[in-house]
Amino acid sequence: MPSCADIAAAWLSSTEFADDHAAVGLLSRAIGPQEYAIKRDSLPVAAAADPDTAAAILELLERGQVPTIAAIRTLTAQNEMRREAERIERLGRRAQRSIDDFGRVLARLADAHWAAHGIGPTRRFIQCSQEVRELICDRIGQVPPGAVKHLWLIERAQRAGWIASNATPGSLCAARRFHAARFGNRVSLRPINTIGTLVASYLADRIAEDGQPPRWSALAHELRDDRGRRLFHDTADARTQQQWLATAEWLAVEDELPVPGKRGLRALHRMRR
Length: 273
Known about the structure:
This protein is mainly alpha-helical. The protein folds into three domains: 4-87, no CATH class; 98-160, no CATH class; 179-272, no CATH class. It has helices spanning 4-12, 21-31, 51-62, 69-97, 99-117, 123-127, 130-139, 153-159, 176-180, 192-210, 216-222, 235-247, 262-272, and strands at 163-164, 173-174, 251-254, 257-260. The chain has a two-stranded antiparallel ribbon. A two-stranded antiparallel sheet has the order 3-4. Helix 1 crosses helix 2 (21-31). The longest helix is centred in the N-terminal third of the chain and has 29 residues, at 69-97. It is elongated. The relative contact order is 0.07. The mean pLDDT is 91.
């Protein structure tokens, strides 16, 4: 009857570890641990017939580890998790390439939900909507419903300026780019964080100068970006965008007038350090 070392050498003869005495020793310890006075389950020779198991054995040998059943299971699970993470990362890159399309749809659905129910949709509800699912299928591919959250569509669309939300349930709403789209280049095209900072800075300066917050009409007509473009088309537009600005905490409302919000104050503090 062949020894464990003979069996190990025979199996490794067709691999990169042929004639590698160290690898033969490691594998033989896994095949026949009792020969080394080790109490653990032996590795069945037939296990190497499975491609994933065989790959795990070779990877463990390359690391200088004994390919025990427990080690193989652990490594196989780790490799599967890594492959899944890489797959999700690839899908995420596809989502990012079409984020404006996703953001536009998410913002429109959120705005419609507010109009119909007076509250924002849940993340699950909006991401599982038929329109979003169809767009995912078209731009990314087939993604199981339970895996949609791993695309980080809400977070990506939020960073892109299409939607806003905070920790409050039902806060998800359409943001700057959705509202500004109807006015084209007649209003500022600056990124959402720049817009928020400009609003907070204007409010802080006016309060410091006048001792009280400005009216919404003043905010709408006086505030401009570094290129001289208005941030808001008119007072009605400013009041409409109050929702996302307050949700993102760039501003807050006190006695029906705008004041810098928590996030706005933090941004101003960083600017002035």
